User: Fold this.
Amino acid sequence: MNPPTLTTAVPGTDKKTKTVTRQERTVPWMVVVHNDPVNLMSYVTMVFQRLFGFSLERARRHMLEVHHKGRSIVWTGEREKAEFHVQQLHGYLLLATLERAE
Assistant:
């Protein structure tokens, strides 16, 4: 059985095809929220509660980690869902990235 392929179009170039291995699909991915000078701490706390279902205490703990350490890992799991969470966070205007767990 052939592994699935992922085709991405890059503007100004030919299409590129990449084979996605089973390991790449199963390796955990982390959703990381980064500090920014724009959003209020109460707003960030509310977003964490709304998107991830965190308790107020847990949401505050992650918000303070972002504030004091510059980043917090708010979710870990499969890549597709992690990408979805990053998009949701961007929708709330929070700076978030996807990182491969090691």
User: Anything to note?
Assistant: The longest helix spans residues 56-69.
